[in-house]
Amino acid sequence: MLAYRSGIFPMADHRDDPEIFWVEPRRRAILPLNGFHLSRSLARTLRRERFSVTCNAAFAGVMDACAAPRRDDGGESWISHRIAASYQRLHELGYAHSLECWQTDGTGKRRLVGGLYGVGFDRVFCGESMFSRVPDASKVALAWLIAALRRAGAELLDCQFITDHLASLGAVEISQRRYVALLRAAQRRYSEDSAGLGDGLGEGAAGAEAIAEAEAEGAALGLPAGFAALLEDAAAASSSPGNFIAQSLTQTS
Which of 5, 68, 123, 194 has its CA 20 to 30 A from that of 216? Predict the structure, then answer.
């Protein structure tokens, strides 16, 4: 967590690599939370509820899918077994989170078809990896992530390295120096606005009370609480979550 708060992150050379190395790239990719490019086709997919989306329902499954060899290149994954175990521990501590996209087959069995995971703290979320087993699943997960982070009061979504795919969704490349400045600002504002509220918010009545308190104080909610608040907002608007998200993202795309 000190590494993430300082602007660096771990990687490995291959799945069975027992060692890790720390990366501080000269150029950094971020996705501005008000700059997500929502295409018409993706908006239709969201509104039609092609996938059911959950938060932290299958963290290990998402990590395993992200670490699997890619069909397009078959290359080695940088997510080693050691790194996977470390993120699983971060998940147990409340710092690492996942979003999952599910589809139900003809037998009624629910299947994990896409998702993403990353590390969240203060007003920052560092996206690590995402996967898709059917078209648009990872894009839907990213759209939900953007909406939930905005609802949570986040300020910075780190994507590590720019790719054509991320650029098509609104990601931009900045210098590492600029990234660290944004990172420090997001952490500083969180410490000024909040007294320890964030990813540790609970569930149920106590969780709802904590969310209300955090909102009143302008504190960041953290991804799980932001996700839950997003669902509540959609229900209050008598809208499906997918339609509610598509509408909110269309206003800033």
Answer: 5
Blockwise average pLDDT, block size 10, the chain, 253 residues: 95 93 96 96 95 97 91 73 96 96 90 97 96 96 97 96 95 97 88 50 47 50 93 95 93 62
Q: Is 58 exposed, middle or buried (0-12, 13-18, 19+ CB in 10 A)?
A: middle
- With 0-12 / 13-18 / 19 or more C-beta atoms within 10 angstroms meaning exposed / middle / buried, residue 102 is middle
Annotated domain spans of the chain: 29-250
Comparing C-alpha atoms, which of 224, 121, 132 is closest to residue 169? Answer: 132
Distance CA 162, CA 170 (A): 10
Tell me the CA end-to-end span of the chain in Å, nearest whole number: 32
Q: What is the Cα 116 distance to its own chain's centre?
A: 6
Decide yes or no: CATH 3.30.565.10 for domain 29-250: no
